[in-house]
């Protein structure tokens, strides 16, 4: 049955000692039936999108995010250096077509296109994904999925993890 959106108190009821998620299925059902309060999306989406291995404490989750951010930085460099210049240009152009169409009325993506840090982060995230998944590459509309992740998480590496 429908219920109220997941609140901070509700989320804490699913966590045990050290901040371990004890009942992931119950958390998923609560979100399915009631949604999530907007201020908690940044936290809850990482659980829902399996960013964290099961059983991590709060401190272990922070360490995991730092490790994954470093891995993402290394991955971007490796993918860009490994790709042929023509492939990189083709992927970047395909991604760019959608990135510039991102909802510019949203405050996170508003403002001038030139030098916009959030549009650049979206471009980097989607290009890295396409180069890292050559059989899939980039498909029109992927930016529509990645943009809300980036806007809510406000972190390119975490948005990449969630997108993957």
UniProtKB/TrEMBL annotation:
<dbReference type="GO" id="GO:0005776">
    <property type="term" value="C:autophagosome"/>
</dbReference>
<dbReference type="Pfam" id="PF00566">
    <property type="entry name" value="RabGAP-TBC"/>
</dbReference>
<keyword id="KW-0343">GTPase activation</keyword>
<dbReference type="InterPro" id="IPR000195">
    <property type="entry name" value="Rab-GAP-TBC_dom"/>
</dbReference>
<dbReference type="InterPro" id="IPR035969">
    <property type="entry name" value="Rab-GAP_TBC_sf"/>
</dbReference>
<dbReference type="GO" id="GO:0005096">
    <property type="term" value="F:GTPase activator activity"/>
</dbReference>
<feature type="domain" description="Rab-GAP TBC">
    <location>
        <begin position="35"/>
        <end position="164"/>
    </location>
</feature>
<protein>
    <submittedName>
        <fullName>TBC25 protein</fullName>
    </submittedName>
</protein>
<dbReference type="GO" id="GO:1901096">
    <property type="term" value="P:regulation of autophagosome maturation"/>
</dbReference>
